[in-house]
Amino acid sequence: MEKLKNYINGQWIDSTSESTLKVLNPATQEVLALVPEGNGADVALAAEAAHQGFQEWRATPVSKRVQYLFKLKTLLENNLDDIARTIVLESGKTFVEAKAEMVRAIENVENACGVPTLIQGEFSEDIAKGIDEYMIRQPLGVCACIAPFNFPGMITFWFLPYALACGNSYIIKPSEKVPLTMTKIVTLMEQLDLPKGVLNLVQGGREVVDALLEHPVIKGISFVGSSAVAKYVYSKGAAHGKRVQAQGGAKNPVIVLPDADIDMTTQIVIDSVYGCAGQRCLAASTIVTVGEHKEFTESLVESTKSRKTGFGLDSDVLMGPVITAESKNRVKHLIDKGLHEGGRLLVDGRDPRIEGYENGNFIQPTIIEDIPLNGELAATEIFGPVLSLVHINTVDEAIRFINGGKYGNMACIFTSSGLNARKFRHEAEAGNIGINIGVAAPVAQFPFSGWKESFYGDLHGQGKHAVEFFTQTKVVIERWLKEWTRKF
Ligand code: NAD
């Protein structure tokens, strides 16, 4: 059984940690590899290598740095299917979903190729007589990304290409549940011939996270994961003087007004709820109908029942398993909790039998109706293929319900009324808003804007925010007087 290694200073080396975890295929429980739990000594080695690598990298002109990214784009495109297959094997999503996530990753590489322009400073001539003032952007130094399991390839790319283009060196800490994808990508990236120490990968879990948060040469931390850990990473990172951006969990509501197009809305909502088996931070979770809803509810039920669940590499499969057996139990427990609170099952996917994959962590698409708006299920991130359906009388009440929630990652509305859409856009408390859109995922040039407990920090991932995050501003005030000029 392969034991994964760390990539430090341009070499694959064994972790100094003896303990390992199993990387499992969620559709079969087959052991794919062993991943070291990692420790502070691994992080110290990576941090030192990255610190050395930074000295050369920051002195490399930005126009040269982005040449590596142009090559990276082609490398990822040429290996898209291979990377996607690895994503399917370790995360359980479908091949189409896995390819789609890598397309989003590549978009960020493309966008970061624009850093020579995005990193430009500002200049004011004559702020006083004979004095000019300007601002330049310089890299932070060593930065690191701590990633979640649900997008094994994409999420690191919300940060990595910008960090490198801006002149930082980097340490990747993939989720210990899905370490194979980034291991494969870093193996491919060896072909870029980056200077040693510029790119590093440390495998592991909590101990590695703590060491990254504590190590003095690490200046910036980008975290994506659950809110409890995001808050922990944000406060501990700040306590150690680091710049931190920490994206957390979500509970995304979608309002459907009676004037929405039923067929289109059904299709989009169903894809949003059940895509990636509901394990997306932008998965629609609570569907809130306003006013008349009978026809829409029937349409949701019909579409939910027809969604094929199975192994992500099999044809026609639209939804895979959830990540672990514990996740499956947790989701089932939450459904039971909703029933206990007074909800009703319209579609029950709790105990499916998927032929040939009896050991997989499968839950089939499930709809639970009429859970109490102030209950536990309505407030809890499920992270599984469960649609909670609630009915409310007015748009104002629906917006009040949304704004009462603790998360603020995404909120969507389906309507043909521009006025209601505009009111929603203005009043809904979420960082990513969808209007007749089911997954309001910002493209690479926009920030991934979570609010409330979905984000801790200031500057988000992607786009200009990433360039600001990975640079520090230096303001120079300069005086040159005529009187000092020597005659030649
Ligand atoms: P997680 O919080 O369990 O793990 C995320 C990372 O933190 C992993 O690398 C893990 O090794 C590390 N970690 C876990 N527990 C830790 C601890 N106690 N101390 C230190 N480090 C720890 O998240 P997950 O289950 O991998 O991912 C799912 C969560 O991520 C969901 O809540 C989802 O909404 C969220 N998510 C958010 C976004 C976003 O953009 N806001 C995107 C994707 C996923």
Question: How would you summarize what this structure contains?
Answer:
This is methylmalonate-semialdehyde dehydrogenase (CoA acylating). Residues 12-476 form the Aldehyde dehydrogenase domain. With 488 residues, the chain is of the alpha/beta class.
Spatial sequence of strands, sheet with the most strands: 14-15-16-13-12-18-19
Cα radius of gyration in angstroms: 24 Å
Separation of termini? 75 Å
User: Into which percentage range does the β-strand content fall?
Assistant: 15-25%
- How confident is the prediction overall: mean pLDDT? 97
The biggest sheet, with number of strands, parallel, antiparallel or mixed sense and barrel status, is:
7 strands, mixed
What's the overall geometry? globular
Helix- and strand-based class? alpha/beta
CATH topology of the largest domain: Aldehyde Dehydrogenase, Chain A, domain 1
Could you walk me through the main structural features you see in this protein, from its secondary elements to its overall organization?
The chain is of the alpha/beta class and 488 residues long. The protein folds into two domains: 6-248 and 454-476, Aldehyde Dehydrogenase, Chain A, domain 1 (3-Layer(aba) Sandwich), CATH 3.40.605; 252-435, Aldehyde Dehydrogenase, Chain A, domain 2 (3-Layer(aba) Sandwich), CATH 3.40.309. The chain contains 16 helices and 22 strands. The strands form six sheets. The protein has a seven-stranded mixed β-sheet with strand order 14-15-16-13-12-18-19, sandwiched between helices. Strands 9-8-7-10-11-21 form a six-stranded mixed β-sheet, sandwiched between helices. Strands 5-6-22 form a three-stranded antiparallel β-sheet. Strand 1 and strand 2 form a beta hairpin. Helix 1 (40-58) crosses helix 8 (206-214), helix 2 runs antiparallel to helix 4 (95-112) and helix 3 (80-91) packs antiparallel against helix 7. Residues 146-150, 173, 175-176, 205-206, 209, 224-226, 229, 232, 247-250, 281, 381, 383, 409, 448, 450, 454 line the site of nicotinamide-adenine-dinucleotide. This is methylmalonate-semialdehyde dehydrogenase (CoA acylating). Residues 12-476 form the Aldehyde dehydrogenase domain.
